From TrEMBL:
Protein name as it appears in the record: General substrate transporter
Species of origin: Nitrosococcus watsoni (strain C-113)
Entry keyword set: Cell membrane, Membrane, Symport, Transmembrane, Transmembrane helix, Transport
Leader sequence residues: none
Composition-biased stretches (Polar residues): 443-456
Length: 456
């Protein structure tokens, strides 16, 4: 073993594999809950419109329901501004415990708010307040969860372990979609409208309590502990985040742009696109999408592991090029109205989205140094989500109506990918390396392997 390697091992933080697993599980649980909420609201939006915004026009009720849904995206940056810097000051695990309980309580409350017919205007007011709390709390969730996983992960496995965060995203979305669909099939239309739609929201309560239990058992991340032990405390003020490190903010916003446009186009907008634009049966489109997401769950960890070996930038650049080249053919295949072409088109889009999702959780936190990592990431992530992710379905729908071109989603994905290549090329490669401002992180098994090689 050479002198440099010996020095690295002396300065490395050694993590126990069981602690890493607990950290990954608890962090991914919160992300699953966030997307479970996103899914159940999306699939019950029409019913929520009737319950809280009764109108002679179904379209008006639905628009009001989606308007309340959009409010959560408006306040997400505020949550990022509040929870992010707070996590850099008091600790990642404390803030993550707060965000998951706020998310689950708000979702649970939607399930118990009386209808407009029962309490009048207070019903939509209660719904709006619950959605505002949801949006505010999710503003601190993803940035904190990704930061926590990455700071706990050995440097050589950060991509693989980070990919479990998006595994939770897909799992939460599928659970919500299947649950709402199953309840609607079992119950009559009147039963579902009267009380059945509330069941998924009520389930969020115990799910949140389980996630809180997991998070309360966690230790603080090694990088945060190291930062607090430093004699010279670094500035983590808003000025440090937004002005001194403005370049890092811009890079993160550019990367999140393609991640969110891809996610919200494929997971949120595509169900409506298949049924409303391409006139594919709703039940068939749901089956196609659920199978696509299940396939994505099967390969997402492989993508994260691949990035540990070949580097994040190679995977991301290749994926963006894939979006530019393959988005139009994928939507052309969807438009052919056959089972085979629909499956191939969805497979292409799913492959491209999962290639992004499997790498981004390990890439984005590593843009920022430890003392502003949670704050910088949470703020830039949620600004980009509010501007580009949450608006993607609305913008695409408007452009299709304006142009009459059903391939607008493909053009939108191609443009986002072309823009994202620039920040991807600028950021440093961090696979297998310590994150900025953090010590080397290794697992016990990795150290034992190094010791064995040294003795040999």
């Amino acid at each position: 073993m050479d002198i440099e390697a010996a020095a690295d091992e002396t300065e490395a933080h050694i993590v126990d594999e069981s602690e890493v697993k607990r950290a990954v599980t608890a962090a991914a649980m919160g992300n699953a809950l966030e997307w479970f909420d996103f899914s159940i609201y999306s699939y019950t939006a029409a019913t929520i419109g009737h319950v809280f915004f009764p109108s002679h026009s179904n379209t008006a009720s639905l628009l009001a329901s989606f308007g309340v849904f959009a409010l959560a995206f408006v306040v997400r940056p505020l949550g990022g501004f509040f929870f992010g810097p707070l996590g850099d000051k008091v600790g990642r695990n404390k803030v993550l415990a707060l965000t998951i309980i706020l998310m689950s309580v708000a979702t649970f409350c939607i399930g118990i708010i009386p209808s407009y017919a029962s309490i009048g205007i207070w019903a939509p007011i209660g719904l709006i307040l619950a959605r505002l709390v949801q949006g505010f709390s999710t503003g601190g969730e993803y940035g904190g969860a990704a930061t926590f996983i990455c700071e706990f992960s050995p440097d050589n496995r950060r991509g693989f372990l980070g990919s479990w965060l998006e595994f939770g995203t897909l799992g939460g979305y599928i659970l919500g979609a299947v649950l709402v669909t199953g309840i609607s099939v079992v119950l009559t239309s009147e039963q579902f409208l009267t009380w059945g739609w509330r069941i998924p929201f009520l389930i969020a309560g115990p799910l949140g309590l389980f996630g809180l239990y997991l998070r309360l058992k966690l230790k603080e991340s090694p990088a945060f502990e190291q930062m607090k032990e430093d004699v010279e405390q670094k500035d983590s003020s808003f000025r440090e985040i937004l002005i001194v490190n403005l370049r890092l903010q811009a890079l993160c916003i550019g990367l999140v742009l393609i991640l969110n446009i891809a996610y919200y186009t494929v997971l949120s907008y595509l169900p409506s696109y298949l049924t409303e634009v391409l006139h594919i049966d709703a039940s068939r489109s749901l089956v196609f999408l659920v199978l696509t997401m299940l396939a994505m769950m099967c390969v997402i960890n492989m993508v994260g592991k691949l990035s540990d070996h070949v580097g994040r930038k190679r995977v991301l650049v290749g994926t963006c090029i894939g979006f530019i080249i393959l988005s139009y053919p994928a939507f052309w295949l969807l438009s052919q109205h056959s089972i085979a072409t629909t499956v191939i088109g969805l497979a292409i889009l799913g492959m491209l989205v999962v290639a992004l999702a499997g790498v981004m959780p390990a890439t984005l936190p590593a843009i920022f140094p430890t003392h502003i990592r949670y704050g910088g990431f949470a703020i830039s992530y949620n600004i980009s989500t509010a501007l580009f992710g949450g608006t993607a379905p609305l913008v695409i729908t408007w452009l299709i109506a304006l142009t009459g071109d059903n391939f607008v989603p493909a053009y939108y994905l191609m443009l986002a990918a072309a823009i994202a290549i620039v920040p991807i090329l600028i950021i440093p490669e961090t696979a297998g390396k310590p994150m900025p401002g953090s010590m080397v992180v290794r697992s016990k098994s990795q150290m034992n392997s190094s010791d064995s090689k040294a003795r040999d």
